[in-house]
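Appendix C reproduces, verbatim, an entry submitted by the partner laboratory led by Prof. M.T., so that reviewers can inspect both the input and the predicted structure.
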Amino acid sequence: MTPLIIQIIVFIVLFAGILFIPVGVPGTFMAAAAVLIWRLAEGGDTFLMRHFIVFLVLAVSGEVVEQISSIFGTKKRGASKYGMAGAFLGGIAGAVLGSMVIPLAGTIIGVFVGSFALTVILEMTLGRKTRAEGMRIGVGALIGKLVAGTYKYAIGIIMLFLIAWRFWVKK
């Protein structure tokens, strides 16, 4: 395969990884790993070690923001351990069920709907919260997912642009 075809394949795989960030695919870490592998395989013409370090720092910052937004989104609204588990497990279940209904778009929508719904259900049943409290906490879970997803998408898009730049613009 020619280097251009390999670059296009790498870019498409990374794009898919970034697209599925809400489902738990580590797209930003995939981009960082691709930069490192490319650097080691190629010998440093396209990417330097500092590029890998920047990508790794960006990927780690995405995880930090995700954890902080989850805590602020649910715990600060009075969530119990059941609500926090509901936000996490509901996101996974929603992604699976959503992808069965509408592939791709359903997956992303399902993460948010599932996170909200299971948080509310678990808070009302196991957490013994009122409906209003459960809804408030569910909204917190939804906001936390949106903040984390938006931040991680932004990082992923920046990474894709940087990779495209290094592949096809800056020679």
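The two ends are 20 Å apart (CA to CA). Additional entries are available on request from the coordinating office.
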